[in-house]
Amino acid sequence: MKHTNLAVAAAVTGLLAVGATTLTSAPAHAAEKEKCYGVAKAGQNDCATNTSSCAGTSTEDGQKDAFVMVPKGLCDRLAGGSTSSS
């Protein structure tokens, strides 16, 4: 019986340690992203545009004022991607 309790305690401790690591690394990932304009598919933009007030409301593919969040440095490599709104 003692071995079972020890195994359960070790498993719970391990899960807590992994969860704490995940929570502390999340802000670092968010800081490594940038807005990429002109590459979102219709209805797939991340935030408001000049012509609409909500995410997911772009009306055409590649709309120049609609953006999606991408890893920093990726936008320059995407066809039609720009880090500034047109």
Strand order of the largest sheet: 1-2
Sheet/helix structural class:
alpha+beta
Q: How many distinct beta strands?
A: 2
Percent helix: 25-40%
Our measurement of the CA-to-CA distance between the termini, rounded to an integer number of angstroms, reads 67 Å
Strand content: 5-15%
Unreliable stretches covering 5 or more consecutive residues: none
As a whole number of angstroms, the C-alpha radius of gyration is 21 Å
Biggest β-sheet strands, sense, barrel: 2 strands, antiparallel
**Helix-strand string:** HEE
Approximate shape? elongated
Number of helices: 1
Mean of the pLDDT scores? 77
What does this structure look like?
The chain is an alpha+beta fold and 86 residues long. It is built from 1 helix and 2 strands; from the N terminus they run αββ. Strands 1-2 form a two-stranded antiparallel ribbon. The protein is elongated.
